[in-house]
Amino acid sequence: MVGVMTKKSIRNKQISQEIQKKIGIILQRKINDQRIYMTNISNVILSKDIAYCKVFVTFSNIENNKNKTKIIIEKIKIINKASGFIQYLLCKSINLRITPKIFFIYDNSLEKIKKIYNLISKSIEKK
Q1: How far apart are the first and last CA of the chain?
Q2: Mean pLDDT rounded to a whole number for the chain
Q3: CA gap 17, 103 in Å, rounded
Q4: What strands, in cross-sheet order, belong to the sheet with 39-46?
């Protein structure tokens, strides 16, 4: 049935939200690397078996930088290198039988929204 969530999918969503909260705290308080300072978690997608976790991140301090793409790639590499340590800290702070393997991915949805907004604004101005 469409729109009906099973107990497993509800639990998966709850675990995703808890992981998002815990990783946010870990990045803010436990990781002391200035290169990944101001990292925001926009979404967490958990596999059905809770073995893998995609963490979508954005970086607040690179908005108007000329080398934005290069900086994003570098920051994603850095944060993925620290993913084992982050997973270890997550394991200590969350009560799960299995702690998922974490993969960090840059979330460019905000940039896409800005582009669409600018296109709509320009089209309205032309009228």
Answers
A1: 44
A2: 88
A3: 16
A4: 39-46, 52-59, 101-106
Q: Please, where are the H alpha helices in 1-108?
A: 7-29, 68-81, 83-93
Task: Pull the structure tokens for residue 16.
Answer: 């995703």
Residue of 61, 51, 67 lying closest to 100 (CA atoms)? 51
> Kind of pairing, strands 52-59 and 101-106?
parallel
Beta strand 101-106 with 39-46: parallel, antiparallel or unpaired? unpaired
Q: How far is CA 56 from CA 16, 42, 72, 110, 113, in A?
A: 12, 6, 12, 12, 16
Tokens for 39? 């990292």
pLDDT at 77 over 90: yes
| Band of pLDDT at residue 114, cut at 50, 70 and 90 | confident
Token readout for 48 is 């059905």
Instruction: Please tell me the pTM assigned to this model.
Output: 0.82
